[in-house]
Amino acid sequence: MSRPHRLRGSTYEIRNPADAHSIFITINNIEKTNGFAPYEVFIQSCDAAHVQWVAGLSNLLSAMLQEGVDIKGVLNTMEGIEDPKNGCYFTKGTKIPSNVAHISTIILKHINELNKEHTD
Prior knowledge:
By secondary structure, the chain is of the alpha+beta class. The protein starts with 7 loop residues before the first strand and ends with a helix. The chain has a three-stranded antiparallel beta sheet. The protein contains three helices and five strands, in the order βββααββα. Helix 2 (72-78) runs antiparallel to helix 3. It has one domain. It has helices at 51-66, 72-78, 99-119, and strands spanning 8-14, 23-32, 35-45, 89-91, 94-96.
């Protein structure tokens, strides 16, 4: 399936107190016969230390989504990744072990919200 010219999406911001810059996650959705599903993920940060891994993670997740892979298992695994240097911060009372874990939690919530919208 070729990428449509226009997609509907959402952008989320996360902020690790140990980092100088926020990380932004944009998830664009594609319309399917049974509602909307994530189609591509863009992760951005102004922190040069994050450039390589956010680009790699964005490309990997987007490629999996575009191939129709259910990425929830991968995201659940990523939620357990701990960062020994800048990990274990709290947001809204929830322990976040790493930026990768936080990103995966955001994407899973987005997927669950899309599924909820479809069943409502």
